[in-house]
């Protein structure tokens, strides 16, 4: 049975935004699984996501301390519809990322990461798919904030869509 995913990272609430964008909350509410690749900043958002998400797979990031580090691992793993996922905040420099991550995660089909705030979707020579959803609240040098949706279905990741977050009015 297909599993709908919302993939986000680097939310930085409440430092970069008071709340998540409405479009992301809407996606979270309808998803089967929410994946968050760290840099929450405040445990209050983790509490909210745990309440609203049907299932949450999440890690802490370099800007997460205290309760966030106590409650969230550095690396999270989940098997969803025959796909082996790993989630980590940082993967290092973009140069050589695919080979480095394939060596670090040889038993994984999809690696979700954050930290750079730059969307990323590539596949290593080993077949490992690397996904970074960007940031929905802190676009940095990107034209807009972003998050991803996808579907895990019978051992395949399909319908991967990068969503632009509408600017606040």
UniProtKB/TrEMBL annotation:
GO molecular function list: hydrolase activity; metal ion binding
Pfam families named in the record: Metallophos_2
UniProt superkingdom: Bacteria
EC top class, as a word: hydrolase
Entry cofactors: a divalent metal cation
Keyword tags: Metal-binding
Xref: InterPro entries: Calcineurin-like_PHP_lpxH, Metallo-depent_PP-like, Phosphodiesterase_MJ0936/Vps29
This protein's name: Phosphoesterase
């Amino acid at each position: 049975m297909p599993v709908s995913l919302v993939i986000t990272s680097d939310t930085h609430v409440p430092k970069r935004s008071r709340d998540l964008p409405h479009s992301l909350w809407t996606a979270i509410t309808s998803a089967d699984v929410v994946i968050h690749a760290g840099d929450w900043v405040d445990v209050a958002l983790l509490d909210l996501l745990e309440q609203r998400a049907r299932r949450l797979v999440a890690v802490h990031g370099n800007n997460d301390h205290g309760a966030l580090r106590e409650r969230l691992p550095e690396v999270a793993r989940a098997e969803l519809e025959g796909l082996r996922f790993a989630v980590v905040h940082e993967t290092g420099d973009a140069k050589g990322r695919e080979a480095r991550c394939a060596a670090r995660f040889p038993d994984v089909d999809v690696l979700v990461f954050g930290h750079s705030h730059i969307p990323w979707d590539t596949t290593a020579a080993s077949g490992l798919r690397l996904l970074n959803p960007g940031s929905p609240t802190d676009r940095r040098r990107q034209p807009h904030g972003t998050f991803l949706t996808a579907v895990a279905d019978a051992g395949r990741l399909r319908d991967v869509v990068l969503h632009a977050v509408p600017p606040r009015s």
